[in-house]
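User: Could you check the structure of this?
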Amino acid sequence: MHTTRPRQLSRRHLLIAGGGLAALSLAACDKVLPVSFNGIDITGANYAQDFRLTDPDGRERTVADFKGKAVMLFFGFTQCPDVCPTALLRAAEIRHMLGADGERLQVIFVTVDPERDTPVVLKAYTNAFDPSFIGLYGDLQRTSETAKAFKAYYKKVPTGASYTMDHSAFSYVYDPQGKIRLVLRHEQGAPECAEDLRKILKTTA
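Assistant: Sure, the predicted structure tokens are below.
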């Protein structure tokens, strides 16, 4: 009598524990598995959640429009002398390095200078780097609100009779489910960034 009861209790405990582990496993299926990135992992961040801006054809765009693709978003302006061209050249190189998966990467350029970056100017600028790249803009208020939502910095700097724009140089990456995942630093090379994008595309395929 004294030897069978502990065994029965043990079996019950194992069944309970097994059920708990199964439930945890099912719950884990709904979560993004941890991955090591070269960029800054901001998975689950409460900023850079979305945007609502206009493309050169007059269509309002949000991150939901690009579901099924990874999205790499960069803030800049078309008259930028070096940082923006470098970032977009790198983005084109990343897309090329991804091979067939490059079709699953959408690069977005958000202007912080909507006064000069008209739809025609934006479209010509992004097309010069890759025809698939999309330029987005808003009015001054929408631009400011979007930058704040991404914790991105920009400022108009007078230069004689004209002005330039000082701005942060990060690229933000969303996974194909539309979740913010990464911040790529400007100094990161294309191979490191492409490696991160492969992981993003693979883990959310």
